[in-house]
TrEMBL record:
Keywords: Signal, Transport
InterPro entries: ABC_transptr_periplasmic_BD, Bact_iron-sidero_bind
SUPFAM superfamilies in the record: Helical backbone' metal receptor
Compartment annotation: Cell envelope
Phylogenetic placement of the source organism: Bacteria, Bacillati, Actinomycetota, Actinomycetes, Propionibacteriales
One BP annotation, GO: iron coordination entity transport
Domain Fe/B12 periplasmic-binding: from-to ranges: 61-319
Gene Ontology CC: one annotated term: outer membrane-bounded periplasmic space
Protein name: Iron complex transport system substrate-binding protein
Statement: the UniProt record of this protein carries the keyword Transport: yes
Superkingdom of this protein's organism: Bacteria
Family stated for the protein in its record: Belongs to the bacterial solute-binding protein 8 family.
Signal peptide: 1-24
Primary location: other
Length: 332
C-alpha cells in the first residue's frame, strides 16, 4: 500500500530537515502525552518484522503512520502530533473518538502515500506504524527520522488482532496499564453480547464487501475485518476472495452480511433467490462512507464497542429462526 518512489524522492529533503531540527529546540505538543505515562517502562525494546526498535524514554511527540494506529494511541491516552489519513473518512468526527479530539484537525502525514517531509517537520520522537503496510525501504527511511515501531512477524501483513495491537501500542508508549484496562473493557463488550446471544456460536456467516457488475468480495478469516464476527462465535470462510453472481449460491449460509452493496446489485434475481435472503437473514450494514464502515476499518478498542452496538441486534434478528423478525437496515 506504500509506493517506494515517493519515499526515495524525498530522502534528501528529509535528511536536510532532520539536520535542521537537530539544531533546534523542541517543545512537546500540548497534551500529546499525559504525565501519567509509566516512566519506569523505559528503555523498552520492541521486536517487529524489520528487527528491533529501542525507545529510550517516554515519547513526547508521536506520529502514527499506520492506517488505524491513531485510534490505538488515543485508546491508551496519547494524542498524536500527526496521523495518517484513513478511508477518506473525517476521523476527528468519528463518534467513538475521545472528547478531547472531537472535531480537532490533527496534522496529517499522507494517505495512500506517506509524506516524509511532513513527518520530519513534526519532529517526532516515535513513529507508530503497526498497521502501515510499509516495506524495508520505507522502514529504513522512517527510522532515520525517529524510532519506528512496525508490525510483528506473528501475523499476515495488516492482520494484527486488535488486542495485540493495543498491547504493542501501550508498551511503546509506556501505557501498558491503560492498554490492559481498555482491552478488558472491550472484551467485556464482546462477553456481554456472547452471553446474551449464545445462538451465535457455530453459525456460518458470510460478509460481502462491495458489489460490482461482476459480483462481490467475500471477506474471509484472513482479513482482520471478520475478527469481530469470529469473536462473537460465528464461523467464516478461512480465505476471502471475489465471488461471481453465478457462484453466489455457494455462500448461502446461516447469515449474510453486506457493506457497500449497491441497491441495484442486491436486487438482482441471483441474490434475491438465495435462501438466506428470502428468509430475512441478510444484515445490511450501510455504505462505505458510513460510521459502521469506519468502525470496521479502524478495528480498535474504541471503535469495536460502537460496531457491536450496531451489529449485534441485527445479527440477533437474523439468527433467531423467525422470518418475521428481519434485521433493520443500517442507514448510517
Amino acid at each position: 500500500m506504500h509506493h517506494a518512489r515517493s519515499l526515495t524522492a524525498l530522502l534528501l529533503t528529509v535528511l536536510t530537515l532532520l539536520a535542521a531540527s537537530a539544531c533546534a529546540s523542541t517543545t512537546p505538543g500540548t497534551g500529546s502525552v499525559p504525565a501519567a505515562s509509566e516512566d519506569g517502562a523505559f528503555p523498552v525494546t520492541m521486536t517487529h518484522r524489520f528487527g528491533t526498535t529501542t525507545i529510550e524514554a517516554r515519547p513526547q511527540r508521536v506520529v502514527t503512520v499506520g492506517f488505524n494506529d491513531q485510534d490505538f494511541a488515543l485508546a491508551v491516552g496519547v494524542e498524536p502530533v500527526g496521523v495518517r489519513e484513513f478511508l477518506g473518512y473525517p476521523a476527528p468526527d468519528r463518534p467513538w473518538a475521545p472528547e478531547g479530539v472531537r472535531g480537532k484537525q490533527l496534522p496529517t502525514v499522507g494517505s495512500q502515500d506517506l509524506d516524509l517531509e511532513a513527518i520530519a517537520k513534526l519532529e517526532p520522537d516515535l513513529i507508530l506504524g503497526i498497521n502501515s503496510y510499509i516495506d524495508d525501504e520505507a522502514y529504513g527511511l522512517l527510522s532515520g527520522i525517529a524510532p519506528t515501531v512496525a508490525q510483528t512477524a506473528d501475523y499476515p501483513e495488516g492482520a494484527t488482532p486488535w488486542d495485540k495491537q493495543t498491547e504493542q501500542t501501550g508498551q511503546a508508549l509506556g501505557r501498558s496499564e491503560q492498554a490492559t484496562k481498555i482491552i478488558a473493557e472491550t472484551r467485556a463488550a464482546f462477553d456481554a453480547a456472547i452471553a446474551e446471544h449464545p445462538e451465535f456460536e457455530g453459525k456460518r456467516a458470510v460478509f460481502l464487501l462491495g458489489s460490482s457488475a461482476a459480483g462481490f468480495y467475500n471477506l474471509g478469516a484472513d482479513d482482520y475485518r471478520t475478527g469481530w464476527l469470529t469473536e462473537l462465535g460465528f464461523d467464516v470462510d478461512a480465505k476471502g476472495g471475489e465471488i461471481s453472481y453465478e457462484k453466489l449460491d455457494t455462500l448461502d449460509r446461516d447469515v449474510l452480511l453486506g457493506e457497500g452493496i449497491a441497491e441495484a446489485d442486491f436486487k438482482r434475481d441471483l441474490v434475491q433467490q438465495l435462501t438466506v435472503v428470502k428468509e430475512g437473514r441478510y444484515v445490511g450494514l450501510g455504505a462505505f462512507d458510513d460510521d459502521f464502515a469506519a468502525a470496521l476499518g479502524f478495528n480498535s478498542p474504541l471503535s469495536l464497542p460502537f460496531l457491536l452496538d450496531i451489529a449485534v441486534p441485527r445479527l440477533a434478528a437474523a439468527t433467531d429462526g423467525d422470518p418475521a423478525t428481519t434485521p433493520a437496515p443500517y442507514l448510517g
